[in-house]
Amino acid sequence: MDRSQSDHPGVRWPEGIWAAVPTPLRPDETIDFRGITHNVAYFRDALGLAGVFCNGLMGEGLSLSGTERRQILETSVEAAGRALPIGVVTTYGSISETLELSRHAVAGGADHIVLMRPAGLFSVE
Q1: Considering Cα of 56, then 60, then 64, then 67, what sign does the dihedral take?
Q2: For labelling alongside 37, which of 22, 56, 117, 125 has CA 20 to 30 A away?
Q3: pLDDT averaged over every residue in the chain
Q4: Which of 9-18, 53-62, 72-81, 101-110 has the lowest mean pLDDT?
Q5: What is the phi/psi pair of residue 9, to 5°?
Q6: How far apart are CA 21 and CA 73, in angstroms?
Q7: Could you give the C-alpha distances from 61 to 73, 84, 89, 96, in angstroms and in order?
């Protein structure tokens, strides 16, 4: 598929190598925001990636509260500056929460929103 053109105006496909940024936790299981800043800067400067994703599987997104996920996005966007595009997984426990996290991502400066299939069993029916 030629992703340089899209049937959907305004859609930009990520290009280059992107990686999922892990969310570091302290021993008391709180989020280490300085660690997030370090990780994003490392992925940008040392690895020279084209972009990063936060709040996905590697970022512990499904085990964090909505507030924590918003804070992680905000920290990641700030750490990246405009030099590194940020994608964010906004899938959450309900459609309304997913939409709220998606709106926050757009307002907060995310370059891409990623949706994952919700957890659970599905049938072809």
Answers
A1: negative
A2: 117
A3: 87
A4: 9-18
A5: -55, 140
A6: 11
A7: 11, 20, 8, 17
Q: 6 pLDDT band (50/70/90 cuts)?
A: low
Q: Is the CB of residue 24 less than 8 Å from the CB of residue 35? A: yes
Q: Detail the DSSP E strand segments found in 2-65.
A: 18-20, 51-54
* Total length of the chain: 125
CB 110 within 8 A of CB 87: yes
Q: How far apart are the first and last CA of the chain?
A: 29
SS3 assignment, position 112: strand
Neighbours of 103 (CB within 10 A): 12
Beta bridge partner(s), residue 112: 87
Average pLDDT over residues 78-88: 92
Alpha carbons within 13 angstroms on the beta-carbon side of residue 68 total: 19
CA atoms within 13 A on the CB side of 75: 22
Could you tell me which of 87, 99, 81 has the C-alpha nearest to residue 51? 87
- For residue 51, give the amino acid letter: G
